[in-house]
Amino acid sequence: DGTNDGLPPCKIKVVGVGGGGGNAVDGMTPFSTYLPTVEFWAMNTDVQAMSKNSAPFTLNLGTESTRGLGAGGKPETGKKAAEESRAAIRQALAGADMVFVTAGLGGGTGTGAAPVVAEEARAAGALTVG
């Protein structure tokens, strides 16, 4: 019946933010068939990089501020892009019981946007790991 001792299954979302986080999730997606209750997401400001990602769910961050061209290695640009996309991030994380946020630190999107993604996950009531 899809439950464990009468409880619904835990909904887990794994979110790769930026290039490094997106690469991590890209490497995990082949295992998604074995993990039916896990959603794999790639969130990035760089549309070209995201188009090459095999994650089943993607979100382009900061379409107004970055126009899909990336954050240029500037964390403040990554943060601004995530702030601009808060509503879309919130919608992507809706219903999650647990959210894993993965990012490579030192670049623009991962460094600047990952904390915003984590804030939204916590605000949604999900156990947040990152």
UniProtKB/TrEMBL annotation:
GO terms for biological process: cell division; organelle fission. Keywords: GTP-binding, Nucleotide-binding. Pfam families: Tubulin. One of its GO terms (molecular function) is GTP binding. InterPro entries: Cell_div_FtsZ_CS, FtsZ/CetZ, Tubulin/FtsZ_GTPase_sf, Tubulin_FtsZ_GTPase. The keyword Nucleotide-binding applies. Residues 61-84 are annotated as: Disordered. Residues 11-130 form the Tubulin/FtsZ GTPase domain. The keyword GTP-binding applies. GO terms for cellular component: cell division site; cytoplasm. It comes from the Eukaryota. This is Tubulin/FtsZ GTPase domain-containing protein.
